[in-house]
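Hi W., the NAP complex you wanted:
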Amino acid sequence: MTENNERRVAVVTGSTRGIGREIARELAAAGMNVVVNSSSERSLPQAAELARALADEFGVEAMPVAANVADEVEANALIDAALDGFGRVDVLVNNAGITRDGLAARMSDDDFDAVIDINLKGAFHCCRAAAKAMMKQRWGRIINMSSVVGVYGNAGQVNYAASKAGVIGLTKSLAKELAKRNITANAVAPGFIATDMTDALTDAQREAITGRIGCGRLGEPADIAHLVRFLASDEASYITGQVICVDGGMSL
Ligand code: NAP
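Structure:
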């Protein structure tokens, strides 16, 4: 809770499904009001349905907002919606992300740019807008979704790996800029988590990947959301500029 005992306010980008949906749920369970974000009007009904469920289950306020974070104007509008609706932005989780895989030699500029624009520039747009509000409040938590692929690289994902490595640089630099204002910025680097994003794997690919994971299973969205909940809390005030891998031991 904030000093005057208002609920904290979290914006979770890309929270219609997968990891973002679970993060929105986890932060609502922690008592925060939540802005649930879809990439467009088309998927707004999923965001609205989640917002209703969070309000019913946890007694918080939740607001669905359609915004393509790659678009500077829409990203600014997303943060403004939180400020207009709830009066503050305490927690920003930059979770929105896409893949457009292919070998580098055959990858089009369009596929490279689309992934950078959403995964990296989208995170930058939202950080820039939210940091202004957090600096005034002198409290904030920024949590950016990277990937183990951004740390170690992956064949067939030069665009995605570059975007997720970029997110790490963005996070560390922001952490240095904002630490004195009581604002932390950390990156979470998931391994393979069972969502729509990893649904496209064949059974053989899934088996090969699982064989490399110490825990012997793909991760669940909740495995990521639990860490985000902690990083968003008062208890995590001395953790900033870090990249935390949540991969069941895959990168060991
Ligand atoms: P997902 O199931 O494919 O969901 C992606 C989410 O991002 C959806 O809510 C989607 O909204 C939203 N989104 C896409 N483009 C957007 C845009 N331009 N503006 C706003 N929202 C947008 O993905 P996921 O597996 O949960 O992944 C979530 C994050 O974790 C991503 O950043 C991903 O790179 C990262 N990650 C995932 C894994 C994994 O194994 N799954 C591993 C490492 C990192 P719509 O429904 O409106 O399209």
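The two ends are 37 Å apart (CA to CA).

W.
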